[in-house]
């Protein structure tokens, strides 16, 4: 019976590690419980009255909630592993009577101290297998800390790329280039560079799905608002007389279709055409779609 309880604890630890792996390191970033936590927080914030202000906190709050969930699950899992063997398989400091606290509380305390790599030493494993398992928990705690730092450092460059593309589209919309002004080498280079930027954002939504739940602030920095103007530019380019401009416009149109497909499959699930997906994307972020 003791080993069955310990195996249940090991299952909790493996569940947390699997979710962490799929959220941070899997190529497609299909985190299970972490994605559920983020989407629930996003939908809840959208229903609140103070929408713009509250939604702006969803992304950071979701990341903190997910990391806290991983840490709590790991701590609880290792506590369940220790619990059936407490206190017999452990040694206690001289001034710490073994009967003072319940075995479960001692197990949670030991797990929390170990995963935080504090190593206070007032409770130490005595059984051979526990002396190997306890340092393993410390390694998992260290990995969780470094993974969290890496996650934060990875997500903000992705947000910067998205916002830079939005500001660039806002500037182009202010300039309002005509189809004739795009019908030259400069126009071809412009459309091609926009296609590259859209592809980067599309990859970011695949690899950093949590970026979707971050608010972009002002409308000019919001891709949800400005992405529709990229479609306008693509249509202008496709009506050009020069073949290089038409090719670059086709590349931009294809990149936009890809981006719409990723947004729809992973977040919106409308099953609609790309223009309608972009309208739904803007609405999901509490914005209105930009018009030329």
UniProtKB/TrEMBL annotation:
Gene3D superfamilies: 1.10.287.70. It holds the Pfam family Ion_trans_2. Residues 101-152 form the Potassium channel domain. The chain crosses the membrane at residues 57-83, 136-159. Keywords: Ion channel, Ion transport, Membrane, Transmembrane, Transmembrane helix, Transport. It comes from the Bacteria. InterPro entries: K_chnl_dom (IPR013099). GO terms for biological process: monoatomic ion transmembrane transport. Signal peptide: none annotated. This is Two pore domain potassium channel family protein. It comes from Streptomyces buecherae. The lineage of its organism: Bacteria, Bacillati, Actinomycetota, Actinomycetes, Kitasatosporales.
